[in-house]
Amino acid sequence: MSSTDPISDLLTRIRNAIRTRHASVEVPISRLKVEVLKILKQQGFIDSYKVSREKEGTHGTVTILLKYDSQGRPVITSLERISRPGCRVYLQKKDIQPVLNGFGINIISTSQGLMTGKQAVEKGVGGEVLCNIY
Question: What pTM did the predictor assign?
Fold first, then answer.
């Protein structure tokens, strides 16, 4: 079944897996989701992800290995969708604020690709704010 908002679907699946203490979660593949997962891995919010396809040219899945600390608490405490299909949120570089005083990240879709808010400010670009994660 196709989703009208794939990023929201990804965040909801991760949120539900964390609430039930799953070690991993599978989501349908898309390039945008893989880019978001690449940022989450670079920032240390997930352990890893693995892209799998049954045959070349067919739809596949992405398996996400979630990350927990030594006491078993999830590293991700909140996943918040900001820009939605019905209400897009765009920010200029000067308006991008740190999430939770730098303890979290915001993922921004810019003309130079997906990046964190901090990277967008450093490169001097603004864009659509997809989500906040902390």
Answer: 0.91
